[in-house]
Each structure stands twice: as C-alpha cells, then as structure tokens.
Design brief:
Length: 358
Amino acid sequence: MLLLTTTLGLEGAVSREVKNLGYKIQDSLTGRVLIDAGYHDIPFFNINIRSAERILYVVGMFKAQNFNELYENIKSLDFSFMPKKPFVRVAKVKTVNSKLHSVRSIQSISMKALVDKFKYVDGNVPYIFHIYARSDNFIVAVDTTGKNGLHLRGYRKKYSRAPLRETIAAALLILSRYTGKLPFYDPFCGSGTIPVEAYLIAKNIPPNLKRSFTSENWPDLGKIYRFERKKAADVIKGSKPEIFCSDIDDEILAVCKENTERAGASVKVFKRDFKQARAWTDVGTIVSNPPYGKRIEDSVWKDMNVLFNSFPGWSINLISPKRNIQKLMKVSPDKTTPFLNSGVKVYFLQFFKRCKAN
Ligand SMILES: C[S@@+](CC[C@H](N)C(=O)[O-])C[C@H]1O[C@@H](n2cnc3c(N)ncnc32)[C@H](O)[C@@H]1O
C-alpha cells in the first residue's frame, strides 16, 4: 500500500484525484490517505499526483501497546525491497490516542529495531521512515519522494507575499472540478500558482515530470521511472486552454510572468483591479486566493459582490479567512472546505450552483 500525505483538510481532494487516476482508497486519515497501490506504483504517483505532498511506501501495519511489541513488529517486517546497506533514519513520528505516546521513545525504539535488523545504516541510498500510531495501530512507512516535497515543482523561483503551495492550488482546482474545458480566470493571481496549476491540469501535463525523487535509485524503480515519464509525456494534450489571470500589483505581475514562462504555461497575465474585471464568456471557472488583512471589513472582501455580479454564470471558488464571509458578501457558498494554509485555518468557499455549465 501507499500512504499519501496531504495538507490538513484537503484529504478529500487527494482522494478524488486518486480515484480519477483509477486507484482505490483504503482509508482517509487526518493529513494522510492510504491507497491500494504497491511498490511498482511509486514512480507513477511521484510523477503524476498533483494534490499530495509526499508518497510513502507502507512497509507494515500492526498493533503495539508496549515498546517490546513495537520493536519486535518492526524487526519482523519485510524489508526485502531495500538494499543490504541502506542509509536508514526515522524522521517523523506521530502518535494519537495510543498507549505509546512518547514521540522520542517511539523514534529511538524504532531506530534500534532498524539498526539491529540491518546491522548497517549508513549506506548511500536513503530510506527515511515515518511512523504513525492511531489507537495503538501502527503504520511504518518509508518516504519515496525525497528532501523536497511534491509541491516543489521547480517553476516558482520567486514568490508573492502570501504564496500558495502548488499542491494546495492543485487540490483546490480539483475540488472546483476544473478540467480545462471552460475558460479559467484568477483575478488575484499573485505569483501565478493557481493559473500555472490550471494549465498543467488542462493540458494533462504531469506536475513533476522533470524533477527527481529519492526512490529513483531503489531496486527495480529506475527503469519504471523512465517508463512512467515517457508514458506521461505521451499523453499531454495538444489543446489550447483559455487561462487568464490578473493582479493589481506591477511587481508581483512581473514575478507571475517569470513563473508562468518558466513553467512553459501559456497564460494571459495582465494588470487589473478585480472590480474592473468582466466576464468575456457565459460560463467559466474562477479559483482565487484574495488578500486579507487583520480587519476583514477593510479588505477587498467588502467589494466581492462586484466580482459575483461581473461573472454571472461562472463557478466562483475563493479561499476565505472566515467561514461566514457571506454575511459581508450576501451570497452563501454551496460548499465550504476548511483547511490549513501555512498553519492558518482558512476556508475554501465554492459557489458552483450559479454556473450555467452545471
Ligand atoms: C494572497 S495573494 C495571492 C497569492 C497567489 N495565489 C500566489 O500563490 O502567489 C493576493 C493578491 O491579490 C492582489 N490584490 C490586492 N488587491 C487587489 C485588487 N483590488 N485587485 C486585484 N488584485 C489585488 C495582491 O497584489 C496579491 O498579489
């Protein structure tokens, strides 16, 4: 099985994407989605998944209520997929509602089991373990992605003041059901993360086709990575999606243009106050991350009705700092998804029933 780590609150987007890719969900946990996929699917997921943060390979699952059980269970797992002289570390431990609740002790006992198992833990090929316990049920998994999470696609070298993670942008686009068929617009584009991810979705371009992963040197996986890269490159669409984005700030627009060009994304970037923006077609999709200050009443949100009136028939999807922002906007969202953006709880508000395409 594979364990996909996610932004807290966006597990639903990852599950939907996994299903769209033709795989089954085993379990959806807080910040993690367990899926029915094996060792040989690792390259496919690292290259193709848009909304997950990391791909972990599940080495084993067991119940343990004391350190002896933890040690013995880890030692008896099947590590035959690893070389004889791996570099092994336990990097992350999370324990919830379990008899074993000391993170440090779980980490050191697990590391001891691995050292005793391998007799050698300082090789060239890294195997970084994550250990999760929930109600005494343990998952021992090893990171296949590497030092940089999957959000680091490589196209964004410069940022706006409040950039959105690429994986979050992709997750929100998936929740909005954007596929590339309808025109797309981001009226608060900042450094351009949402429009670039929209372009990658519309063209069926794998988000991480060009970067490398820690598991490329693992036994058997090198040739599968080469195969999956070629297979993914072969199904990129020749379509020309209509993707527009704007911002009010000249400096950030220059950064946005650099980022879209680096990503090879054909996106029309222009300067506009969102209050002046007008729909150019009857239907389309807006996914956007408006700014918010300390006092919401002083921010752009007090004028957000202008956007709704200027884009009748469009699906509008916005990240909001408050759940009840509609009191200010006088329209109620059709769906609200809370999630953590850089450690801050925000709400993805979706207004899709107004969309003529639905
Ligand atoms: C939270 S940031 C967007 C970040 C973006 N998603 C990214 O990943 O970089 C909000 C953006 O709204 C822009 N903005 C503020 N007031 C605006 C207005 N009246 N019209 C259009 N854009 C505005 C800011 O310049 C800022 O770049």
